[in-house]
Amino acid sequence: METHQQQQNQQAPNDIQDSSSGGSGKGSFLCRQSSTRWTPTTDQIRILKDLYYNNGVRSPSADQIQRISARLRQYGKIEGKNVFYWFQNHKARERQKKRFNTSTTDHHHHVPLQRPTNITLANNKFPTNINSGCYSPSSPSSTGVLTVGQIGNNGYGSITMEKSFRDCSISACGSSTASASESLSHNFGWVGIDPAYSSSYAFFEPKRFIDGIHEEGQ
Amino acid sequence: METHQQQQNQQAPNDIQDSSSGGSGKGSFLCRQSSTRWTPTTDQIRILKDLYYNNGVRSPSADQIQRISARLRQYGKIEGKNVFYWFQNHKARERQKKRFNTSTTDHHHHVPLQRPTNITLANNKFPTNINSGCYSPSSPSSTGVLTVGQIGNNGYGSITMEKSFRDCSISACGSSTASASESLSHNFGWVGIDPAYSSSYAFFEPKRFIDGIHEEGQ
DNA sequence: ACGATATGAATGAATG
DNA sequence: CATTCATTCATATCGT
Which of A63, B33, B179, B205 has the least CB density, counted as fewest CB within 10 Å? Predict the structure, then answer.
């Protein structure tokens, strides 16, 4: 996934989108990214993954999407549909990977995901790991937060998303290693099945409670 | 693809590429990620193409992917994702190339093919027809895949002008539509779930955000 | 050695 | 939710 994370278009929290004058890119390629496709910033990815893995958000409702996108907007241009698609894709691909590498006769009974007390940062499952950490995605700042305390706990100490104010205090909740968050989650690559994340039930998922729990344990 | 046909020799079926197939490897001494990406052996490619052209395999299902990768494994290290990506890419590139010469008889259809980058797609490697005999189905001899000749060679004569209208103009409006519900829900905060109200939208489409962009009806 | 090309890998966006 | 398409990045390989 974010093995390399070619993120160069770091839109300011403002709303710039076509600032081609910047030219501060790595110079690898173009800077004109006025394309139609959303290019998530590192911070946005970090938060999205935090929601996904640490908070168990899988299919956020319209409400949540609005809130999430509002929060992510301070890190770059984003729309609700981007958030929607992101979760859809992330979930689908996680499943797909497993599908490729598991036998069809083994659908029932899979290992329940364990609850890691700390993030598994480096699992060298296979020599052929897709990992290629040689690329450093020029993380702007906040490098190496690495708060490996109680990440997925249900104590609720992470996000603090407000309702009306998009200011929020998110404070990046030390969920994962900041800059390493990308390289962190791609560990469960195509062969490694387990996402080293605990999906503690989201405390803010209405549907979870009223609509019945869908599958989430992997 | 065929043009290139890099003959990087076939690694031992049971061994990973030593990263020195060409001789002076890039010296991956301190970095263990020598195998950054899968390098298919000639046998693997042969079989993959056979499946593609002679058997019409285009988008193998997860089940097929497992089976294919299992079979190819005897010719070299391979994973399910490799097979998956191979077919994806092969199909996509073939279509991409075909999209040029098949200019749809110069209709008004202004296909957005511009490439912001300078790399442009100036590959004239496959000007007219990508194949029509390009691939020689020399009997695999070991897999019994029913090598019939050139049935699937151009079996999919269907041009590639199915749906190419994706330029669109995704209006940036987005989030305003669904914000109606949001304005209401923010009263309760999002930790406090209100059962009496929370199940408004179970599922929704990103259309809600973008509000009518694709009108591919006719 | 370098630059161009080919192609593996990744992912946003859509559709069924 | 699964499948697919398009686009782009990264890199292996080849040509000069």
Answer: B205
What's the token pair of residue A218? 């992997």
Out of B32, B79, B186, the one facing A163 most closely (by C-beta) is: B186
Nearest chain A residue (CA) to B33: A132
B residues 31-90 lying closer than 8 A (beta carbon) to A: 31-33, 35-38, 62-63, 65-66, 69, 77, 79-81, 83-84
Length of chain A: 218
Q: A153-188: b or e for each residue (b if 16 or more CB lie within 10 Å)?
A: eeeeebbebbbeeeeeebebbbbbbbbbbbbbbbbb
Can you tell me the distance from the alpha carbon of A127 to that of A191, in angstroms, rounded to the nearest whole number? 11
The residue to which tokens 């109606």 are assigned: B180
Three-class SS of residue A129?
A: coil
Q: What is the rounded distance in angstroms from the CA atom of residue B125 to the CA atom of residue B130?
A: 8
Residues 88-147 of A with CB under 7 A from strand D: 88-89, 91-92, 95-96, 99, 132, 134-135
Per-residue pLDDT of chain B (218 residues; tens, 9 = 90+): 434 433 344 443 434 334 333 333 333 344 444 568 999 999 999 999 999 999 999 999 999 999 999 999 999 999 999 999 999 999 999 998 877 665 544 433 333 333 343 333 333 333 333 333 333 333 333 343 433 333 333 333 333 333 333 333 333 333 333 333 333 333 333 333 333 333 334 455 666 665 433 333 33
Q: What CA–CA distance (Å, rounded) separates B2 from B135? A: 7
CB–CB of A14/A73 below 8 Å?
Answer: no
Full-model pTM: 0.58
